[in-house]
Specification:
Length: 185
Amino acid sequence: MSSRKENLISEIVRALREAQSLSVRTLASKSGFSASFISQIENGQASPSISSLEKIASALGVTLFEFFGKSESRAFVVVRATDRPRLQSAWSKAHIESLSTDSISRLESLLITIEPTGCSGNSLHVQSREHFAFVVSGEIVLFLENDRQTLTAGDAVTIPAQRPYRWSNESAESAQILLVFPKGA
């Protein structure tokens, strides 16, 4: 039996917004979405894509990794497969797992599993930080600006900051991508 903690995006977005004393309209304006969409997310009526989550996190001044919360500082932390905090994006047909919970590390790492026909978003999006991606299993299509690359298990890529990209799983099997970011927004 898994003890994996499923984080509810609705609760996380609302808690982060309220902690900053932001109104729904202010968060909507800062993220580029409608107040209605933010409200639907907070009420569990809408499932944002991975790229939408990244935009909301940025508007809240946090990274997607920080959606998983902070843990105590220790010299190292073992993150057991059964204990990984996890976010679900029904829209993207994906789930995101935090692989690093140590608050003193200079790296953030996420494991994203994208089901067949899933994608990070409809359009290309940018990250403010350079990041490294490694395909753990399956086959994933990377759209990087005007380039399209099919990556398979074992392939790796470094995506420069501010370069528009998106992921898509066009295969019949799920695919897993390991993402590693330097810490910071």
